[in-house]
Write a structure and sequence with these properties.
- By secondary structure, the protein is of the alpha/beta class.
- It has one domain (about 1-245): Carbonic Anhydrase II.
- The chain contains 5 helices and 15 strands.
- Strands 3, 4, 5, 6, 7, 9, 10, 11, 12, 13 and 14 form an 11-stranded mixed sheet that branches. Strands 1-8 form a two-stranded parallel sheet.
- The longest helix is centred in the first third of the chain and has 12 residues, at about 1-15.
- The structure holds zinc ion.
- Zinc ion binds next to strand 7.
């Protein structure tokens, strides 16, 4: 029964569309020399923003403006349900009502996924692991909450993902222990904010980025296990151009 279920899910996985919102499965882009970030803009017409965009992600957060940013209220009531290795990232899907309200707009959590090492940097500092919690509004706008991990104590939420993670590309497994994705977040939700893009093709802009100031810990073994499966799946930082980061 379980085998059948997995086959069905895998088929579904490969029917996805591209983008950070789904992180699926255009065959030609990746992180190798021949299909890596510097080539993305030339791989397909629909990827042209990857080279022509002016508000691209990730960035090195280093040009700040003091702002009176409102408290971030992450209202997650749903569960992480499946973990997939789609060849670009380790992606966790969710079910139920997970919401964050920004600019008066309710954004619903669609999925979260990981990058090793981190894509964004904070004042020049790169972290060994970064999670992206991808949210979408009813109007189809995107918001990503970025969470940095530092090496330290084992991370309990991450372990629940790792327990059911399969290194086979295209695999997708149910989580034996489903959990509230909010378990990942630090107690203090102070954040930086900037306007950016998907960090994967088609590099669509107009994405609200909230980068949490406080990192959380994961063990060396946990981070290594993620890295072994994903490799270096970090797009290099992109020019700020006219942008500042609110803090
Ligand atoms: Zn990402």
């Amino acid at each position: 029964m379980r085998t059948l279920f997995l086959l069905t899910l895998s088929t579904f996985l490969f029917a996805g569309v591209t983008g950070e919102g789904h992180h699926a499965d255009h065959p030609s882009w990746g992180y190798a020399k021949e299909n890596g970030p510097s080539k993305w803009g030339d791989l397909a017409f629909e990827f042209h923003i990857c080279k022509e965009g002016v508000n691209q992600s990730p960035i090195d957060l280093n040009r700040f403006i003091e702002a009176d940013l409102p408290d971030l209220k992450i209202i997650y009531a749903g569960n992480a349900t499946t973990v997939a290795n789609n060849g670009h990232t380790i992606k966790v899907e969710v079910m139920g009502k997970d919401e964050v309200v920004v600019d008066g707009i309710p954004f619903s959590l669609v999925q979260f996924h990981f990058h090793t090492p981190s894509e964004n940097k904070i004042k020049g500092k790169q972290f060994p692991l970064e999670a992206h919690f991808v949210h979408e509004s009813p109007q189809g706008e995107f918001l990503v909450i970025a969470l940095m991990f530092e090496e330290g104590e084992p991370n309990k939420a991450l372990q629940k993902v790792l327990n059911d993670l399969n290194s086979t590309v295209g695999s997708k497994n149910l989580l034996h222990e489903m959990f509230n994705p909010g378990e990942f977040f630090p107690k203090k939700l102070d954040y930086y904010r900037y306007s950016g893009s998907f960090t994967t093709p088609p590099c669509t802009e107009g994405v609200r980025w909230l980068v949490l100031k406080n990192s959380v810990e994961a063990s060396k073994e946990q981070i290594e296990k993620m890295h072994k499966i994903m490799g270096d799946n970090n797009r290099p930082t992109q020019p700020l151009k006219a942008r500042c980061v609110l803090k």
